[in-house]
What we know:
Blueprint: H1 4-41
Amino acid sequence: MNHWPFITAAYLVVLVGTVGIAALSYAAMRRAEAAAEALRSGRA
């Protein structure tokens, strides 16, 4: 039985998950920075 399809799928799942978490974290960081800037400039 060839094990390479399982290994390829496992790496793909990890890669997609990592990119997804990085994108969500970046979006949350941008929202937090915008909120902090709004508080700083008095637009809250």
